[in-house]
Specification:
The chain is of the alpha+beta class. The chain is built from five helices and eight strands.
Amino acid sequence: MERPTLLTDKWRAGYAAERLADFTARCRARGLAITPQRVAVMRALVNSGEHPRAETVFAAVRGEYPNISLATVHRTLQTLCAIGEARKVAPLHDSARYDGNTAPHHHVVCVRCRKIRDIEVAEFNDLLHGRQTLGDFQLLGCSVEIHALCRDCREAAPKEATTR
């Protein structure tokens, strides 16, 4: 059994560079206009390891494009999801977060601070191996969400208990 692996910032940087290098070609192939704002939103998304909310992407892009609106960022993120360039992640019934990593992977989510990290667990990839359907549902894919406490929250817990 392989050990679960959190995807590192170094891995993400290489992945982001690859994704951005071909982004305009993939958009053109899908008939999607290439705008500087769309490229900036994609860049902010794939460079983030935090699975940002639309508001976080907006803040990152607004420095470069001060006239961009939050509505434009929301529409761009929805478009990126619709064409397979991003994934919408809604952990623990929280508000929508976005993931620029479209390679098969899973998520570990801190139940306290809501931090999300990408994780690879080989065994999870075979959970539905060979199945085409599940009851009345046609299977399209599978992503596992693991609920946990991150190191920061675990370390803060004993301190909080002693200050009460």
